[in-house]
Amino acid sequence: MEGRKNCFDPSKTPKFRVELHVHLDGAIRPETLWELSQRKGLFLHGSQEALCRACITECPSDLPTFLKPIAEYLPLVVGDAEAIERIAFEFCEDAALQHILYAEVRYSPHLMASEHFSPSQVVESVNRGLERGQRTFSIGVRSILCSIRGRPGWSREVVQLCKEYRDRGVVAMDIAGDTQGVVDTSQEDVEAFQLAYQLGIHRTVHAGEDGPADQVKFALQQLHAERIGHGYRVVEDEAIYRRCLDSRVHLEACPHSSLLTGAVTDRGMKHPIVRYAEDGANFSINRDDPTLIQKTLGDDYALLRDMGLTDVHFARANFNAARSAFLPHEEKSVLLEKLKQIYGVEDTTQ
């Protein structure tokens, strides 16, 4: 049955959080995947427990290996309006249960489309689920539409979808996929982001995760990126890192993900997110792909606490996230006021 018992009680939650980097197709409940597999006769594994184990990435690998389970289970929702609406609705419930006040969830409309179910229909289905989830669980959620590197034509279509649905909860575009090369984004993708810039569509870019710091520079200069997804390798180039610090570029950090994707391999060195915190960088704390990691946002905070971050750093990260959210000015002001009341401070950002 869709949904869980809603035990979310705002009056008993002293601190709320803002999350800006989480993938919808990487945030599907394993029990939902199992139920869909049974209903559709697509038996991926012999039991729900086996399916869950197959999804989870427990050991550090590389980004393609980390993402491999999504390709295996995504056919369960591809082209299925009801299933897509359901996972969007359940995303809202799970976020509310983790004390998330506001979230921006991203996905590729093309990856969930089929021959008879267009990317536009995917967006419509996600929107229905998010709209219903927001009402039911008293949470704010907006969506970001992703293009994928190496997929001709997708980026321009994503721009048009962002334009079409900008008044129905779609707040930005992104591009994800392989970033191991320095300039691995096609000219077609560059032109799409430049068009988005001209149209006033917000932009975030996966960069500096499994690719070099120059990828971040390319995203800022050529794609007009306002935020950077992950960006850990930027600390390897002091000039580019200093530019991010000075211009307050927002870095969407994902603690557990950074270790499991191989983005951060040297456990003996200071983690880039610790550098972000110590240097007063504009960064947030996010789950990335919770289906694959099976960790809550609270687990990500606990991991960073073990690395030395404090409550002050966490408060700053949430104010940073609210300031960098792709919301209209009025809605962003309301979100910031809520955070001020929750944290009992005027502002904690530097």
Short description:
This is adenosine deaminase. This protein has 350 residues and is α/β, with parallel strands linked by helices. 47% of the residues lie in helices and 14% in strands.
In words, what does this structure look like?
The chain has 15 helices and 8 strands. By secondary structure, the chain is α/β, with parallel strands linked by helices. The chain has an 8-stranded parallel beta sheet with strand order 1-2-3-4-5-6-7-8. Helix 9 links the parallel strand 6 and strand 7. Helix 6 runs parallel beside helix 7. The longest helix is centred in the middle third of the chain and has 19 residues. The termini are far apart. The N terminus is likely disordered.
Count the beta strands.
8
**Radius of gyration over all CA atoms, rounded:** 19 Å
Mean of residue pLDDT? Answer: 91
* Main β sheet profile: 8 strands, parallel
Q: How would you sum up the global shape?
A: globular
Number of distinct helices? 15
Strand order of the largest sheet: 1-2-3-4-5-6-7-8
What descriptive keywords fit this protein?
hydrolase, globular, metal ion binding, 350 residues, 15 helices, metal-binding, alpha/beta, eight-stranded parallel β-sheet
